[in-house]
UniProtKB/TrEMBL annotation:
Residues 1-24 are annotated as: Disordered. It comes from Zonotrichia albicollis. GO terms for biological process: mitochondrial respiratory chain complex IV assembly. It comes from the Eukaryota. The lineage of its organism: Eukaryota, Metazoa, Chordata, Craniata, Vertebrata. This is COA4 factor. One of its GO terms (cellular component) is mitochondrial intermembrane space.
């Protein structure tokens, strides 16, 4: 399953780097991120609803997971001091 529309983000169904030859680097990063389940749920919503605006819960969950992973790895934006 793939979508490359102008009205929303591009998404694919590749789950791991081993599953698809020549996989997109972004898909590989998601697979390594620990956010694969949130990504899968977002993709399922997109496949069903065909409009990312109807998948805001999944968009937020995936974004929060990726942001947390970046903070843990020290690659995300700096956090303001308390």
């Amino acid at each position: 399953c793939t979508s490359a529309g102008l009205q929303g983000p591009t998404w694919t169904c590749g789950w791991t780097a081993e599953e698809e030859e020549g996989e997109d680097p972004l898909d590989a990063r998601i697979a390594r991120s620990g956010c694969l389940e949130q990504h899968r749920q977002l993709q399922e919503c997109m496949a069903e609803r065909r409009d990312w605006r109807h998948c805001q819960e999944q968009v937020r969950a995936f974004g929060a997971c990726m942001a947390q992973q970046q903070r843990q790895r020290g690659t995300g934006p700096a956090q303001p001091p308390d």
